[in-house]
Write a structure and sequence with these properties.
The protein is mostly beta strands. It has a single domain, classed as Sandwich (Jelly Rolls). The chain contains 4 helices and 18 strands. Strands 1, 3, 4, 5, 6, 9, 14, 15, 16 and 18 form a 10-stranded mixed beta sheet that branches. The longest helix is centred in the first third of the chain and has 11 residues.
């Protein structure tokens, strides 16, 4: 059946469908600490648009001098198929811009405090591409509200994955020491890796697979230094070009590109009375 479908689809759609249909095999198995309790998730075990009970969208031109128009409820840019969420960037004229993509967000649908957020994903590549898995304060107010970048990659550094914390102090007052870390991976575009952040009252720990890439401590008890005690929502997007992704230009011939997400899972720490999972 799959061969028949691929035979009648265009070459571009064949590549997208067949890529997403591959079995998901994480690059490295990660053993979860038994202290964590699952409180929210999307396994993407359905077909069509992302679940409207869990996700909404950013729409239009948003930030950072990027080149893409973020679309809403458009299967070409964001769809669930073969057990994965596929976010896809295209070169095409749309609403006065030359590229389209999607930014899928949990704002108003899923917002969390302390705990662990993890995403199993395969990343896109190509010069100009800029995928991100990140979080913003549900109460808004950037940069005072803070920003948690669980994963960022730019296409001109295809193997480097970055984890970064933004606050008013790091962005405005230039207190940047220890705000970012990175890891080099062999297969961020060819294999699935687990990207995660753990938020505690005194620090945030960032992981790629089972490697701690960054630990960001609470340095001062001020909103300018530590805005991370409240609830944050998740953003999953592919930007194109812009202030970081476009530093070395773009290569439209590499498009379309996909970020393929197998699942999103959110955990909270078990209370002392709760038994650990066996």
């Amino acid at each position: 059946m799959k061969k028949m479908l691929c035979a009648i689809l265009s070459l571009g759609m064949v590549a997208a469908w067949c890529q997403a249909a591959e079995p998901v095999k994480p690059a490295k198995e990660v053993k979860l600490d038994p202290k964590w309790k699952l409180v929210w998730n999307d396994e993407f075990d359905y077909t069509g648009l992302p679940d409207t009970n869990k996700w909404t969208y950013e729409v239009g031109y948003i930030r950072n001098k990027e080149l893409q128009y973020y679309t809403k409820s458009r299967l070409k840019n964001a769809r669930v198929e073969s057990g994965c969420l596929v976010i896809e960037t295209h070169k095409e004229s749309y609403e006065g811009m030359d590229y389209t993509s999607a930014s899928v967000i949990s704002k108003g649908k899923g917002e969390w405090g302390y705990g662990r957020v993890e995403i199993l994903a395969k990343l896109p590549g190509g010069r100009g591409i800029w995928p991100a898995l990140w979080m913003l304060n549900a109460k808004g107010g950037w940069p005072k509200g803070g920003e948690i970048d669980i994963m960022e990659l730019v296409g001109y550094e295809p193997n480097n994955v970055y984890c970064t914390v933004h606050t008013y102090d790091t962005y405005v007052n230039n207190k940047k020491e220890g705000q970012s870390g990175h890891i080099s991976l062999d297969t961020p575009q060819n294999g699935f890796h687990l990207y995660a952040v753990e938020r505690y009252p005194d620090r945030m720990d960032f992981y790629v697979d089972d490697v701690k890439v960054l630990s960001y401590p609470k340095k001062e008890n001020t909103i300018e230094s530590w805005p991370f005690d409240g609830k944050f929502y998740l953003i999953m997007n592919i930007a194109y070009g812009g202030a970081w992704g476009g530093v070395k230009g773009v290569d439209p011939s590499a498009l379309p590109q996909q970020m393929v997400i197998d699942y999103v899972r959110v955990y909270e720490e078990k209370k002392e009375a709760e038994p650990a999972a066996k």
